[in-house]
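User: Can you predict the 3D structure for this chain?
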Amino acid sequence: LSLSLLLSLICGWIDFQTGPEIMDPVFYLIPIALAAWYVNGPAGIAVSILCGAFAAYGTEIQTGLLANSLWIGLWGISSRLFFYFFAVWLLGRQRRTMDTIRQLATIDSQTGVYNARTFFEMLQKEMARSRRYQRRRKSLTGLVWTPPRWTPNGH
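Assistant: Here is the predicted structure, written as structure tokens:
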């Protein structure tokens, strides 16, 4: 979140120094996307409002567009904020979809345990860790699951 706030301040400062001709409000999507993706949706909304204020000052207020025509200035500010909020919503939805896909790819939906591919990846990591720290491989036996033995009557 602090990186997003710092980047939005940098974008605001560049926007103030260069004027509305050079700095495009699309550049503000970088800190908004960082906050929405790595922190959460409300943080992305907060950074969107901050970036919207900086962009509004950089374009509508600094050029006098808001003073000349209040409705046109408010339309520019509100459309920019809607664009930023929509980007936060899209990023949040994409993040949830990717988390669901990741979970479906690693966990069996019927049993709720790791699938074979994930199990062997975890086993390989543990083997590498035991080689790195020169531990005995006996400690890895806890990873291997052996099915219980069934008696002839099924109990």
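The mean pLDDT is 80. The two ends are 55 Å apart (CA to CA).
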